[in-house]
Design a protein that fits this description.
- The protein is α/β, with parallel strands linked by helices and 478 residues long.
- The chain contains 17 helices and 14 strands.
- Helix 5 (135-147) links the parallel strand 3 (124-130) and strand 4 (154-161).
- Helix 11 (319-329) packs parallel to helix 12.
- The longest helix has 26 residues, at 2-27.
- The radius of gyration is 27 Å and the shape is globular.
- The termini are far apart.
- The chain binds uridine-diphosphate-N-acetylgalactosamine and manganese (II) ion.
Length: 478
């Protein structure tokens, strides 16, 4: 009896081993229906090479399928004598040399690796828009996502090709399992492209990435966890730096958050000292007044309810302020998660053209953000960016209606509760002027031009702030 059982186990084991070998052999064969250049290249090289295509299996899942990465990269490389920075504003030669993947240092705090996440985290749709991205950076972005994320959390990767010169990039990349590519019929800019990608997404959580990123170890789980716990949170990773010269992967500081000046220029700034002192756990989220814009996770229902993006913004810029103000002022929050790290190639110039010009486009977009969300404080924006005065920015009626519908807080609320560190220009000057006169004032509203004091107009605009300087109950109406 015992012998029969032993034989049965032996037979089953042999069958299982043979079956596994057959499965792997089958799986590593390119499908005959492939009409890609990778497919035709394989045909030229014969069956042997077809079978030697590397098969990357993560958790039992072949992440790149039969996509021929080598052919994809080698058919478009820098030609001898060409300036490696010209087309992409980073060193293309170095990027190409790295190929489709590489090992990067886990830049997280060591305590991050012991974090635990819910076993039932929901999957996400990754949205990557691109306009004339280099093949090597784009492929590394996609591959890093597929290789460094639990497969069950990646519902799909939606590429939106924003009318790049070569439609082949989009077509070829669609051969990678889970990757879909939508191609715009004309240049739309990253804002409308992201809205298109988000609308096509089938998962309930959206993850936006730039097209020249490399995600790091366990980057995704902390972000999905936070959004799962509270769908009104919009979360970003710490954005590590990929050198535009030698493509070294460099850890960014974990003490930074997003900020801006009144000209609506984004900057990284130190976390305020009180908050820093209060942080005894380096894995805790960092509240941020604004996000850099390119890399974040957001619940799809919340993205839609809050009005996606302002689709009258063109090409690049300003949408991160508009989204950040909207999220905070309309009931959500923004945070940076130190246990999530994503590398990004920061550049010094735009490698692509702006049909309306770079400056005018930035002004149009930021002006829309200021006009819709900054209430009376938009005056400081115009003071800091005088060239914006009188420039066309289109109708904002829809966005104002959205703001009313969502019953959002005022910009003053945002400044007081989210970004009290943002200095009000000339506030000190106005204060000292009033103090000298021994007066105590209250604001009569920003449209009120009837102040009887002969202080310069720009200072008058700041009067509604003056209550901050006077202890409550001690002011008198003028
Ligand atoms: C930062 C953001 C970027 C965006 C921008 C403000 C990060 C890491 N990056 O600028 O995502 O929020 O600030 O608008 O936070 N693209 C298109 N169509 C275009 C132009 C660009 O699809 O017409 C793509 C481009 O290929 C890239 C992405 O949009 O994938 C962002 O463009 P970028 O990398 O030039 O912007 P960046 O990183 O300087
Ligand atoms: Mn970028």
């Amino acid at each position: 009896m015992r012998r029969i059982r032993a034989n049965a186990i032996l037979i089953l084991t042999v069958a299982w081993i043979l079956g596994t070998f057959y499965y792997l052999w089958q799986d590593s064969r390119p499908s005959s229906s492939s009409s890609s250049s990778s497919g035709s290249q394989l045909k030229n090289h014969g069956r042997l090479e077809e079978r030697t295509l590397p098969l990357i299996v993560i958790d039992g899942y072949p992440v790149m399928g039969h996509f021929d990465q080598k052919a994809f990269l080698s058919s478009k490389q820098l030609k001898a004598g060409e300036d490696p920075y010209r087309e992409h504003a980073f060193n293309l030669q170095e990027s190409d040399r790295l190929g489709s993947e590489r090992t990067i240092r886990d830049t997280r705090h060591y305590r991050c690796s012991s974090m635990t996440f819910d076993p039932d985290l929901p999957p996400t749709s990754i949205i990557i828009t691109f306009h004339n991205e280099a093949r090597s950076t784009l492929l590394r972005t996609i591959k890093s996502v597929l290789m460094r994320s639990p497969p069950h959390l990646i519902q799909e990767i939606i590429l939106v090709d924003d009318f790049s010169s070569d439609p082949e990039d989009c077509r070829l990349l669609s051969q990678i399992p889970k990757v879909h590519c939508l191609r715009n019929e004309r240049r739309e800019g990253l804002i409308r492209s992201r809205v298109r990608g988000a609308s096509a997404a089938s998962a309930s959580i959206l993850t936006f990435l730039d097209s020249h990123c490399e995600v790091n170890t366990d980057w995704l789980q902390p972000m999905i966890q936070r959004v799962k716990e509270d769908h009104t949170r919009v979360v970003s990773p710490i954005i590590d730096v990929i050198s535009l010269d030698n493509f070294a992967y460099l850890a960014a500081s974990a003490d930074l958050r997003g900020g801006f000046d009144w000209s609506l220029h984004f900057k990284w700034e130190q976390i305020p000292i009180e908050q820093k002192m209060a942080r005894n756990d380096p894995t805790q989220p960092i509240r941020t007044p604004v996000i850099a814009g390119g890399i974040f996770v957001m619940d799809k229902g919340w993205f839609n309810r809050l009005g996606q993006y302002d689709t009258h913004m063109d090409i690049w810029g300003g949408e991160n302020f508009e989204l950040s103000f909207r999220v905070w002022m309309c009931g959500g929050s923004l945070e940076i998660l130190p246990c999530s790290r994503v590398g990004h190639v920061f550049r010094k110039r735009h490698p692509y053209d702006f049909p309306e010009g770079n400056a005018l486009t930035y002004i149009k977009n930021t002006r829309r953000a200021a006009e819709v969300w900054m209430d009376e404080y938009k005056q400081y924006y115009y003071a800091a960016r005088p060239s914006a005065q009188g420039k066309a920015f289109g109708s904002i009626a829809d966005r104002l209606a959205l703001r009313r519908k969502l019953n959002c807080n005022s910009f003053r609320w945002y400044l007081e509760n989210v970004y009290p560190e943002l200095k009000i220009p000339e506030q000190d000057a106005a204060y000292s002027l009033l103090k000298q006169g021994g007066l105590c004032l209250e604001s009569h509203g920003t449209d009120n031009n009837e102040f009887a004091f002969s202080i310069k107009p720009s200072a008058v605009l700041y009067l509604h702030y003056i209550h901050i300087y006077f202890p409550q109950g001690k002011c008198h109406h003028t």
